[in-house]
Amino acid sequence: MVKHRESRPGHKAAGGLGARPRRDMSGKPPAKPAHASKPAKPSRDHGERVTEPRDVAPERPLMTRSGERPAERVPVILESLGAGDFHLIDSGNGLKLEQYGPYRIVRPEAQALWPPSLAPHVWDNADAIFTGDTDEDGMGRWRFQREALGETWPLQLLGVDFLGRFTAFRHVGVFPEQIVHWAWMKEQVEAAKRPLKVLNLFGYTGVASLVAAAAGAEVTHVDASKKAIGWARENQALGRMEKLPIRWICEDAMKFILREERRGSKYDIILTDPPKFGRGPNGEVWHLFEHLPLMLDVCREILSPKALGLVLTAYSIRASFYSIHELMRETMRGAGGAVESGELVIREAGPDGRTPGRALSTSLFSRWVPK
Ligand SMILES: C[S@@+](CC[C@H](N)C(=O)[O-])C[C@H]1O[C@@H](n2cnc3c(N)ncnc32)[C@H](O)[C@@H]1O
After folding, report:
1. Crossing angle of helices 207-215/179-191, nearest 10°?
2. Dist. CA 245 → ligand 1 center (Å)
3. Radius of gyration of the chain (CA)
């Protein structure tokens, strides 16, 4: 069987969480430009090819924070055994077998180093198998075992309808490991006795935005890809959720939050799920290792005084959860509350979706909460 490295839309960069100039709250000028300072390789994102950066997002130096760092809870492993129409059936030999509604799908999964639990005929019976380029940003093909399937099919998670989608980059229109964050956010929104404002950065096909809006939040969804925003709107229409208050914004995430900061906008919950490398719609460069400190710094400034959480997920990066954990604690100095960090894992659930097996790690996360 072929082994592939997993990636998600937007990726590829080298480097470390570099030292950046800081400023006090009065704001001295930056010592060096921060955003878009390194040349980036061309990349493909949802099939849209962008080449050279054409625009440089605005920036500012980091704030100097004082006060105690928030309390810490580590390691926290947030585990999902699947939800709604999704579960992980089995994994092994560099692959995973997943159930998405009516379809069983086989995709590359570099972390599944162990042998599969289920017999080969179960795997061979999958409806769709992704056979791709082994390169991280490689395109690939879906092989349909019985009949050619349509590009999309309906799915439901946490009560929200959306479309599963066979994309050219092995993704299926949703990252189900995020369900644990979405369920947490839904709880916060439903428990609040006021309409919460939720910001979903790098929002992709909008499932988190729809979950938040369905729970009663006013949502701002930001993504650089026109195509992904189009898919998110399709998802909204599928669930007849057009009347829900969601602003769909196709923009570079950093540029957007810097503008929100200048405007004094505030949010009660911010979800941010940045790729390792990405591009804004005007070629703005996003390098996680270079820009994450500023992104969190700005996110903190646009959290409302009664904010309920800042949730960061990071995937496909060579780092420990401690690197985003300590960054989050430094960023949230003086804010009180706690920072909990660890991994998001999906547990195998067998063909019936109810038989717990091995845990598959998908990403790192760090979340600041006020208590
Ligand atoms: C892995 S997806 C996020 C998935 C999402 N959290 C979910 O679970 O549905 C990463 C997204 O970041 C977007 N992106 C990449 N670079 C960006 C940038 N500079 N500004 C805004 N969005 C960007 C991509 O278009 C892609 O939709």
Report:
1. 20
2. 21
3. 20
Q: Is the CB of 82 under 6 A from ligand 1?
A: no
Between CA 308 and CA 190 the distance in angstroms is 12
Q: Is 175 in the pocket of ligand 1 (CB under 6 A)?
A: yes
Which residue is closest in CA terms to ligand 1's atom 13? 202
How many angstroms does the Cα of residue 186 sit away from the middle of ligand 1?
21
CB under 8 Å to 246, separation ≥6 — which residues?
A: 206, 209, 210, 213, 219, 220, 221, 236
Tokens 């299926």 correspond to 172
Taking alpha carbons only, the member of 181, 199, 179 closest to residue 270 is 199
Give the number of domains in the chain: 1
Ligand 1, atom 15: closest residue by C-alpha: 278
- Identity of the amino acid at 104: R
pLDDT digits (tens), the chain, 371 positions = 333 333 466 543 333 344 444 443 333 333 333 444 333 333 333 334 444 445 555 689 999 999 999 999 999 999 998 889 999 999 999 999 999 999 999 999 999 999 999 999 999 999 999 987 655 455 789 999 889 999 999 999 999 999 999 998 889 999 999 999 999 999 999 999 899 999 999 999 999 999 999 999 999 999 999 999 999 999 999 999 999 999 999 999 999 999 999 999 999 999 999 999 999 999 999 999 999 999 999 999 999 999 999 999 999 889 999 999 999 999 999 999 999 999 999 999 999 999 999 999 999 999 999 99
DSSP 292: H
CA of 146 to the centre of ligand 1 (A): 33
* Ligand 1 pocket member 224 (CB < 6 A): yes
**Residue range of the domain that includes 66:** 58-78+171-369
134 belongs to a structural domain = no
Burial of residue 23 (CB within 10 Å: 0-12, 13-18, 19+) is middle
Decide whether any atom of ligand 1 lies within 6 Å of the 7 Cβ. Answer: no
Residue 230 maps to a domain: yes
CATH number of the domain that residue 230 is part of: 3.40.50.150
Pocket test for ligand 1, best of 12, 204, 285 (most atoms within 8 A of CB): 204
Residue 145 lies in a domain: no
- Centre of ligand 1 to C-alpha 11, Å, is 10
- Residue 181 Cα, ligand 1 centroid: separation in angstroms? 16
Residue 240 included in any domain: yes
Residue nearest to atom 27 of ligand 1 (CA): 204
